[in-house]
Specification:
This protein is 23% helix and 25% strand. By secondary structure, it is of the alpha+beta class.
Length: 186
């Protein structure tokens, strides 16, 4: 289960890295859990920083952006309390309490990796979404694998719901709901 969600998040990072090209002068940075400077302030662990309207840095922890009850509502089944999938990761994984590979992952990503204008590549489709934060886009990796990437100010995050048997539109609706909850908290 964790491997599946980590692979899903890694695919989203791959797309973000592909979007940072020589044409934009960017380099792949800000991968969730990479420890990249764009992920978190120097020396922090498990959080990322963004600027508040007053300019003072705000430290975020992915595991505090949604509750287990909210993750459970997205899945339609109970989940654990949520924890980083790997030590030092800037993400939080809420796994179902059963034996299936269903879960919700929220990842704080570097603002430099947020690129809704990148082109789709073989096997990955990028679709801009309006009405969510200051910008948002889905990364689709085929039936059942969707990741919603969102930016608000200088904070970027992704929400992914993995639920076997759910349609892409169901996954997108759940991810959108979670993103709107998160946007109200950052």
């Amino acid at each position: 289960m964790r491997r599946t969600l980590i692979a899903l998040a890694s695919m989203a990072v791959l797309v973000a890295a592909c979007g940072s090209s020589a044409a934009t002068g960017g380099a792949p940075t800000g991968a969730p859990g990479s420890g990249s400077p764009t992920d978190a302030p120097h020396g922090s662990s498990g959080s990322a920083a963004s600027a508040t309207p007053a300019g003072a840095p705000k430290t975020l922890d992915a595991c505090t952006l949604i509750t287990a009850d909210e993750a459970a509502a997205a899945l339609g089944k109970p989940v654990d309390a949520g924890a980083p999938p790997t030590p030092g990761a800037h993400s939080c994984l809420f796994s179902d309490k059963g034996v299936s590979a269903d879960g919700v992952e929220i990842s704080l990503t570097g603002i430099a990796s947020f690129n809704p204008d990148q082109k789709s590549i073989s096997g990955l489709t990028i679709t801009k979404v309006s009405g969510i934060g200051d910008g948002a886009y889905y990364v689709s990796m085929g039936a059942g694998y969707q990741v919603l990437n969102v930016r608000k100010g200088q904070t970027a995050f992704s929400a992914s719901v993995l639920l076997k048997g759910a349609s892409d539109s169901q996954l997108q609706a759940s991810e959108r709901t979670l993103a709107m909850l998160i946007l109200g908290r950052i």
